[in-house]
Amino acid sequence: MKLSVALTLFAAQLATAHYTFPDLIANNTVSSDWQYVRITANHYSNGPVTDVTSDAIRCYELDSTSAGQTGTATVAAGSTVGFKADNTMGHPGYFSAYMTPASPAANSNQAGLGKTWFKIWEWSPTFSPSTGLVFASENIQQFTFTIPKNVPSGQYLIRGEQIALHVASSVGGAQFYIGCAQVNVINGGSGKPSPTVSFPGAYSATDPGILINIYSLPSNYTGYKAPGPAVWSG
C-alpha cells in the first residue's frame, strides 16, 4: 500500500512538472484552452515528445480531428503573439517559434506536412565560463514573439516549442513541449521566408543543442548551439 501511494505521488509530481501550450496570446488577449491551438496528445498527461523523428514533433496533435475542431485567429503581420502554458515551465531549456504557410487552410490536416517551416524567433540560454549556461526562460508561464512584418498575408500554423534540457545528456533525453496555433495573417508584406525545413527532419537527436549535459559542459565549450535553421526576421 505504501509503495502504491508513493508511486501515485511520484506520477503526480511528474505531471505537474510538465506542461502544454493550450492558449494563444494574440491581439492583447489570451485565448481559452485549445480555442486556436490544436489539442495535443499530452493534454491530460502533459508528457513531452522525445523522438525527433516522429510525426509528433510537428504539432503533437491528439488525432486527425484536431485541426478541423480548432478555430483560426486573425492576427496582423508585425504584431506580438505567443503561447501560455497550463503550468509554470520549470525546466531549463531553449525556446523557438516557427511558421508555415497553411495549404489549403490552417484547419486542414495537410498544412505543414512539407519542407515549409521557417523559424521566426528563438530564446537561447546565455553562456560565460564563469557562470556556465544561464536560462533566463526558466520558471515562466508564457512566451511571446513578433510575427515578421514582411511575412505574406494568408493562413499559417505557428509552432511554439520549448526543448527542455535538464535530462538531455543521453539520446532521447531532451523533452519537446509543442503547440501549433492556427492563424490568418493580415496586413502582410512580400517577404520570402527562408531557410525552410520539415518536421520531422529539422532536428537530429545528436544535434549539440539537443544532446547536451547542461550540468557538465566540456572545457572547450563556447556557447549554446541552437538546433534547426537560422531565424528569418522578415
UniProtKB/TrEMBL annotation:
Pfam families for this protein: AA9 (PF03443)
Domain (Auxiliary Activity family 9 catalytic) ranges: 18-220
GO molecular function term, any single one: monooxygenase activity
Annotated Gene3D superfamilies: 2.70.50.70
Cofactor(s) it depends on: Cu(2+)
Compartment list: Secreted
Residues making up the signal peptide according to the UniProt record: 1-17
Root EC class: oxidoreductase
Record EC number: 1.14.99.56
One GO CC term on file: extracellular region
Catalytic reaction equation(s): [(1->4)-beta-D-glucosyl]n+m + reduced acceptor + O2 = 4-dehydro-beta-D-glucosyl-[(1->4)-beta-D-glucosyl]n-1 + [(1->4)-beta-D-glucosyl]m + acceptor + H2O
Entry's Gene Ontology BP terms: cellulose catabolic process
Domain of life of the organism encoding this protein: Eukaryota
Keywords: Carbohydrate metabolism, Cellulose degradation, Copper, Disulfide bond, Metal-binding, Monooxygenase, Oxidoreductase, Polysaccharide degradation, Secreted, Signal
Keyword Phosphoprotein: no
PANTHER family registered for this protein in UniProt: ENDO-BETA-1,4-GLUCANASE D, PUTATIVE (AFU_ORTHOLOGUE AFUA_1G12560)-RELATED
UniProt similarity note: Belongs to the polysaccharide monooxygenase AA9 family.
Protein name from the UniProt record: lytic cellulose monooxygenase (C4-dehydrogenating)
Protein source organism: Leucocoprinus birnbaumii
